[in-house]
Amino acid sequence: MSASGRSDTADDLLAALLDGMDAALCAFDSDGVITHWNREAERILGWTAIEAVGRKGFAGWAVRAADADDVQERLMSAQHVPGRQVHEFALLTKDGGRILVRTQSAGVPGADGKPAGVYCAFSEVHAQIDLERSIALSEALLEDASWGVVLVDVDLRPAVVNAHAARAFGSGRTALLGRPLGDLLAQGVEELEGALQHVLAEGAPPAPLELWVSVKTPEGVRRRCWRCGFLRLASPLAEEPVPLGVGWLFQDVTEARQAELDTGQLRFRAHQLHRAGRAAAECEDPAEAASVRLDFALAGFAEHALVDVLEGDGPQRRLVRSGASPSGLALLLPGPGAVPVRYEAAHPAFQALDRIGPVRASAPATGTGPDGNWARTRRWPAGAAHALCTVLRSRGRTLGALTFLRGPSRPAFDRTDALYAEEVAARVAADLDLAARSGTG
Fold it and tell me: Where are the beta strands (DSSP E) in 199-280?
């Protein structure tokens, strides 16, 4: 190929590149004559490349006469200073309108290193401001937002994490990048990944979603409730939307939701105590009334309730099984010679008697779940993983111990549970005391 052919090809390639740019672009030689003018410049101002190329500056056609010298001087000064210069000018469109543009201009050195001209990229100011606002919004969300922001890629791995989200995960921002969500969450990861996959496939849900998750932190696992919003991210450069990932925004609403749960729980338990009291009032046998109270107390609270009556005192004390719920049978006060439950001296039921207060215990965790021998060695039903023992007292005397048991799928008993158990125990103890005095049971 001849030198002239290569030159023509290079010129065609340069023209194609310039016309394909999203920004308006023009170039001037060292004398200020326009040498290049792309399609975006034509779209903004209306002047075609044929009309623009070859003109000296903007004077007399694309700028007011009063502004022409100032505009030309500021544009051409870029070839004598390093870096880019940013200016705002009011230019004229072909139909006589005025439009405010923001320009970025820089000098073009020649082969000998001397100034050979200037290139100038420009866009409408409002479009530039919109772009800057978008960039500023993105930076603010990823730096200063008071809620968590995570950009998740199509493989459902964090690609960008803001400072608030990093604190919520109890980790540094870079330490979270590229890690599977299962490495960060002990529970709730299936629900979160399901929501992210739905957003990638169908788009953002119409309303925020609340998820309970267990976050793995250096201090241990934390149970949190996050109010989440999702946005599908698609490339603006593709002809058809191509998913780039999901924008995930969340706020921690644990305290508010926990308060609502606690209020609902207290309301339910108060209602159960009220219903149990009315049902017990219809029982002729006080021991049967105690059994009714236990059946009501178990609803939503525990799987088993055990009543052990105290016999003897000091080293000779022993606990004798009086009844268990749910059984549908009334409690029976053990008679003389009843066989005691073979509790060890350090059994939680004896600890409750010593403290005259509730004692909580849970099975130690193993690789496959709670220790299966834990309940058996304590003479409790198989499968029990959490226990709450409280004392039965009436008229200033200790009558025995009441034990509630939960399975491994439920959480351990907490302080609020202990308060409720004490309330139930007080009422059951009064019934048992009445049964003993009346000689029933």
Answer: 209-217, 220-234, 243-252
Q: Taking a C-beta distance cutoff of 8 angstroms, is the pair 119, 105 a contact? A: yes
Average pLDDT over residues 192-197: 92
Which has the closest alpha carbon to 293: 421, 441, 438? Answer: 421
Measure CA 169 to chain center: 9
| Whether residue 286 has a cis bond before it, omega within 30° of 0 | no
Q: Are 417 and 301 in contact (CB under 8 A)?
A: yes
State how far the Cα of 109 lies from the Cα of 279, in Å rounded to an integer. 97
CB 405 within 8 A of CB 384: yes
User: What's at 426, amino acid-wise?
Assistant: A
Q: How many CB atoms lie within 10 A of CB 352?
A: 24
Q: Which amino acid does the sequence have at 319?
A: L
The dihedral formed by the CA atoms of 261, 415, 405 and 441, expressed in degrees to the nearest 10: -110
- Predicted confidence (pLDDT) per residue in 115-144, tens digit: 888 988 888 877 767 767 777 777 777 776
| Residues 25 and 120 sit within 8 Å (Cβ to Cβ) | yes
Query: Who's near 67: CB < 8 A, 6+ residues apart?
Result: 89, 90
Q: Say if residues 145 and 161 touch (Cβ distance below 8 Å).
A: no
Output DSSP code: residue 352.
H
User: What pTM, to 2 d.p., does this model score?
Assistant: 0.55
Q: What is the 3-state secondary structure (H, E, C) of 387-419?
A: EEEEEEEECCEEEEEEEEEECCCCCCCCHHHHH
User: How many degrees, rounded to 5, is the angle at CA 403 between CA 401 and CA 408?
Assistant: 160
Distance between CA 283 and CA 292 in Å, rounded?
A: 9
Bridging pattern class, strands 85-92 and 98-109? antiparallel
* Pair 154, 245: CB distance under 8 Å: yes
Task: Please name the residues in contact with 244: beta carbons below 8 A apart, sequence gap of 6 or more.
Answer: 153, 154, 233, 234, 235
